[in-house]
Specification:
alpha+beta; Rossmann fold; Uridine Diphospho-n-acetylenolpyruvylglucosamine Reductase, domain 3; 5-stranded antiparallel beta sheet; 15 helices; 17% strand
Length: 457
C-alpha cells in the first residue's frame, strides 16, 4: 500500500485490516481532526454496505480540557458525526493536565477512556493513524535507542489489556486522507498544537522533509516498522513456548523465572524473557529500556540471595518445595496504589488488573494485614482441574499485597464455592480472580458479578 493503485478500495483496506461488521462492534477514536474524521466517514460507509445486520459502530470524542475552546470543538465534532449517522459520546477528562509531558498524559488518558468504552461489549478500537504518524514514531524511538519491540512501531493490530486496537490506515499517507475529506466535503478541526514545536513529535514532523532527502522517508520507515513487527511476532511466539518451563505468570499477578532453565538460554533470549515478564508484571504499555535490561541481566546472571528492586518491580530469589530456584517477580510491595471509590463499570487497577464492578464500590490494596487473613485459605487452595499444587502458592507473601479488594458492594457478588479468597473482616471481598482465569466463559463474567483478571496473562 506504499503506492496509490488505480483500483484502490477503502472497503478492501478495511477487510484486510481485520474489520468485520458482522462480528465486531467498533469504537472509533475521533479527535475531530482530518485524519479521524476521514476515518469515521470511511468506516461508516463500510458499515453501511453490509447487507446483513452489522454490529454497532460508534465514536468516542475525548475532551482533554487542555485548550480553552476544547469543549466547543468536541461539541462541533459530535454534531458532524451525528450528521454522518454515527452515534457518539463526548467524555471530558476530569484529571488536570500536568505542566510537562502533556501529550503523553493526554494519550494515556485517551486510551484509558477508549478501553473502558470498548469493554462494554468487547468492541474493537479503531484509530486514524497514518503513514507519517508511523514514521514520526520510528524516528522518536530510534533517537532513544529502542530495541526490536520499539522499532516495530505502531502495529496494524495490537492489544491493550484484552481489547484489540486496529489501525487500518498505517500504510496510507496523510495527504490521501486529506484528499478524501476534500472530495467528500468533510469538515474538520485544525488543532494548533499539531504545529507547536514545544512537542517532540511536532519537531520530528517539521524535520521530515530533511530526512526524506537522506532516504529516511515515511515509506521507508514504514517498511522498517513492518520488518521489525514481523521479527517481534516471531520472537513473541518463541517466548510463549518457554511459558511454564522457563517462566510463568500466575492468575494472582506474580511472575516467576526458573533460574537454571533461564541460564540455559542464549543471552539474547535471556534478555527477551526478562523484558517480557517485567513489562507484564509492571503493567506497563511500553517495554523496559535497554539500560534497565542490562542492569537486570547482570544481576540475574550472578544471582545473589537477596532480593532487588528495579523500576518499581521486586525480584526475589526463593527455592520452592520441589527444590527449584525460582526468582519471583512482582510490583514493589511498599508502594501500593491509591485506594479510591470507583463507579460501576470496567476499570484498570494498578495497571494490571481488569476489574468489573456491577455498581460503585471502594477498592483498595490487600496489604500485609489483609494477606494475613487469607494466607491459610490460600495454602488450602486447589483447582479441581489441576492435581498438582500450583507453583504460585509458594510466592512470597509480599507479592500478594497489591491484590485489589472491593468493599461496599450493595449486591452480594456471585462467588463460586471453590474460590477461597472471598471475605475479609472489614467487609472487603477479593473478586473471584482464580475462577475467571481458569474459566473465561461469558457465564463467569456476567453483569451481576464483581470480577477481575490479571491482564498480564
Amino acid at each position: 500500500m506504499d503506492d496509490v493503485r488505480p483500483q484502490f478500495s477503502w472497503h478492501d483496506l478495511c477487510i484486510n485490516a481485520g474489520l468485520n461488521p458482522l462480528k465486531q462492534p467498533v469504537v472509533l477514536a475521533v479527535s475531530g481532526g482530518v485524519d479521524s474524521m476521514a476515518m469515521a466517514h470511511i468506516l461508516h460507509q463500510f458499515w453501511a454496505q453490509c447487507q446483513s445486520e452489522p454490529k454497532s459502530l460508534r465514536a468516542l470524542i475525548i475532551d482533554h480540557g487542555i485548550r480553552a475552546n476544547s469543549a466547543h470543538e468536541a461539541a462541533l465534532t459530535a454534531q458532524r458525526l451525528t450528521a454522518f449517522g454515527i452515534p457518539n459520546r463526548i467524555e471530558r477528562l476530569a484529571a488536570p493536565a500536568p505542566e510537562t509531558g502533556i501529550q503523553a498524559w493526554a494519550r494515556d488518558h485517551r486510551y484509558q477512556a477508549l478501553w473502558r468504552e470498548a469493554c462494554r461489549d468487547q468492541a474493537v478500537i479503531v484509530t486514524g493513524h497514518h503513514k507519517e504518524d508511523q514514521a514520526e514514531t520510528i524516528m522518536m524511538r530510534l533517537s532513544k535507542g529502542s530495541g526490536i519491540k520499539g522499532l516495530a512501531g505502531m502495529k496494524l493490530q495490537s492489544d491493550r489489556h484484552g481489547i484489540k486496537i486496529i489501525r487500518p490506515f498505517l500504510s496510507i499517507s496523510k495527504q490521501m486522507l486529506c484528499d478524501y475529506a476534500d472530495q467528500h466535503g468533510i469538515e474538520y478541526i485544525n488543532d494548533p498544537s499539531n504545529d507547536n514545536p514545544q512537542f517532540e513529535r511536532v519537531r520530528w514532523r517539521q524535520a521530515q522533509s530533511h530526512f526524506d532527502s537522506m532516504g529516511f522517508s515515511a515509506a521507508n520507515l514504514s517498511r522498517l516498522a513492518r520488518s521489525f513487527a514481523a521479527l517481534d511476532e516471531a520472537i513473541n511466539n518463541q517466548i510463549q513456548g518457554f511459558k511454564g518451563k522457563v517462566f510463568d505468570l500466575s492468575p494472582l499477578g506474580q511472575g516467576w523465572i526458573d533460574h537454571s532453565a533461564w541460564q540455559g538460554l542464549p543471552e539474547v533470549l535471556q534478555r527477551l524473557v526478562l523484558a517480557h515478564i517485567l513489562q507484564r508484571v509492571a503493567g506497563s504499555i511500553h517495554p523496559p529500556s535497554q539500560d534497565a535490561l542490562t542492569r537486570l541481566h547482570a544481576w540475574f546472571d550472578d544471582l545473589p540471595s537477596k532480593a532487588r528492586t528495579l523500576g518499581g518491580v521486586e525480584f526475589a530469589p526463593k527455592v520452592n518445595q520441589a527444590g527449584r530456584q525460582l526468582v519471583w517477580v512482582y510490583p514493589e510491595a511498599e508502594r501500593p496504589w491509591q485506594a479510591m471509590d470507583y463507579p460501576e463499570g470496567h476499570h484498570m487497577i494498578d495497571g494490571r488488573w481488569h476489574l468489573y464492578l456491577p455498581q460503585s464500590a471502594h477498592v483498595y490494596p490487600l496489604g500485609a494485614s489483609g494477606f494475613a487473613e487469607v494466607k491459610h485459605l490460600l495454602k488450602q487452595s486447589r483447582q479441581k482441574d489441576h492435581s498438582a499444587r500450583p507453583v504460585w502458592l509458594d510466592a512470597p507473601a509480599r507479592s500478594f499485597w497489591r491484590l485489589p479488594v472491593v468493599k461496599n458492594l450493595k449486591k452480594t457478588p456471585n462467588f463460586l464455592a471453590q474460590n477461597p479468597l472471598i471475605a475479609l473482616e472489614d467487609g472487603g471481598v477479593i473478586p473471584h480472580v482464580i475462577n475467571i482465569e481458569m474459566n473465561k466463559s461469558k457465564t463467569s463474567m456476567n453483569a451481576e458479578t464483581s470480577w477481575m483478571r490479571f491482564s498480564g496473562q
